[in-house]
What we know:
The protein is an alpha/beta fold. It has three domains: 4-157 and 229-404, Glycosidases (TIM Barrel); 409-591, Rossmann fold, CATH 3.40.50.880; 603-638, no CATH class. It is built from 18 helices and 24 strands. Strands 1-2-3-4-5-6-7-8 form an eight-stranded parallel beta barrel. Helix 5 (119-136) packs parallel to helix 8 (213-241), helix 6 (162-176) crosses helix 7 and helix 16 crosses helix 18 (578-591). The longest helix is centred in the middle third of the chain and has 29 residues, at 213-241. It is globular, with a radius of gyration of 25 Å. The two termini are 19 Å apart. The structure holds beta-D-galactopyranose (GAL).
Amino acid sequence: MAETSGRNRNLGVCYYPEHWPRQMWAKDAALMAKTGLRLVRIGEFAWSRIEPEPGEFDWGWMDEAIETLGAAGLKVIVGTPTATPPRWMLGKHPDMLGVDAMGRARKFGSRRHYCFSHMGYRHECARIVQKLGERYGKSPHVAAWQTDNEYGCHDTVLSYSRSALRGFRDWLAHKYQSPEALNEAWGNVFWSMEYGASDEIDLPNMTVTKANPAHELDFWRYSSEQVVAFNRVQTDILRQFTGKPLIHNYMGRTVEFDHYAVGDDLDIASWDSYPLGFLEDRSERDDEWKQRFMRQGDPDFQAFHHDLYRRVGAGRWWVMEQQPGPVNWAPFNPAPLPGMVRLWTWEAFAHGAETVCYFRWRQAPFAQEQMHAGMLRPDSEAAPALGEAAQVARELAELPEIACGRADVALVFDYQSAWGWHILPQGESFDYFRLVFDFYRALRRLGLSIDIISPNDTNLGDYKLILMPGLMDLSDGLKTAMAAFGGTILAGPRTGSKTGAMQIPLPLPPDIPGLDCTVEHVESLRPGAEVPLADGGAFIHWAESLQTSSKPVELTGEAKPAIVEKNKTFYLAGWPDQKALTRILKNLCTQEKISTLDLPDHIRVRDSGPVRFFFNYGAKAASFEGIDLPPAGVHWHRL
Ligand code: GAL
């Protein structure tokens, strides 16, 4: 990626002109510009104001809002409003609602009340997107477009509706071509589940006990493809009217659809970063950790998603929504430590973000998110985030040239594995995101900068170390790339242990060319149980018994193989705790001459080309290698 200076990095904000009297808009726009914001996202929930009655459009307010923002020197990101169909839409399409796994329709009254498989609603979305494209596609004030809002939010990818059933049957008929082929792939001889025709197949919910995992996995695949198709309807239309970048705003710890596939139809990936909400809501760390970082967020969670979405956007990515103060939706909603909004923003830039937009401009005194902070209070006085954003805007002008070239270390992240292990965890604690994130945390503890890659990335050339924990199905393409790769690979646990049809492959896993080992059996471990390792630390959650005739690199406490290796390809026979993982990864780095650090929990480092950034996620002042960092401190210097 080309070197970029601070002048090419932008700040922005999410704004809802339809929430405020028109007299406020110009003043708002002037203050945004004065703060140093350049981009304003609007429109993504405004369908009922754009088309108050079916076929009757009111463009006046939106034209004026865009003109007002443009006149203040701001550029606009237009959001397509398809995450919030107006109430009249249900009159036209009563069966468009998503249906939960218990067969209950999810009612109108909040948002995302649609099923991705409903063709009538898809058609309505095409219609509104076409209108928006026609109206604003050539506007000089529009800099980019956002499709919908947070696909999958509020558990909306899987829907067990009649539309989904119809779509799934067609999808299966197309995929397998005959009931015999489907029966064979799914292993339907088991429990007499053989089908004679595709219209005999139901959705895999409300079964007496767990459904066939192959049936479930195909339904997850089908559902993910509906998200891709839904998004593509919008991108195909928008591209007829605009050459500006098309973006979607993804979320944290969300794996229900294949983000790489959606990203292929877009120009930039973005995500919505709520560090304090995520710590309370999506982190599995203990209470002590949550209390320690309650005002700062988990030191690795944001970085993981920055690196993931950099890949989803093929190098181009933004933070579309940055937490500005307390949110309203986590079990507890503390306020950020002073300085954290600035730190989160800088951390995104250090990982290569082009733009960071804050959510939202002014706190709304009404409706569902009235307790969610903004950059302004409901009375339009400044909230703390405003000053921190202004500070970043000033500092950006001084940012040296930074670049986000290839890291030495790559970590594979695969959505199908997340679905597969969700469907067949074989132990309550086997969660794919958790496994990959454990590896990521250990790498960050060692001060490393990391690329997250897709299993379809077979151009592995420049990496020195590639990790692929839990990668369920090793494709032939990836196996070939692995065989040609000159660096170090660490696979396992569970890598290569299922076929694409969710069966145990023969020869038995991991079946990595050249590697002399076979997984004899696996076991999942209850919380507190562990398999100690001879060199320290232990396997937790998961352990495998390996058959091998080569000399293991590491042993368990009972002298069984824990790691085996051939030609720099290593297989790990369990889920190491952080102590073991840090040691194992450090050894691999040493062998590959990748230099590491030994960072305390609260200090994190990121290299961006010639510049090294330091972040203090601690609530107290800290120093590391002679660098003093105040609480929430950020430091950068040339390497
Ligand atoms: C995001 C969403 C926004 C807003 C925000 C509140 O998930 O995209 O519309 O709801 O959360 O934190």
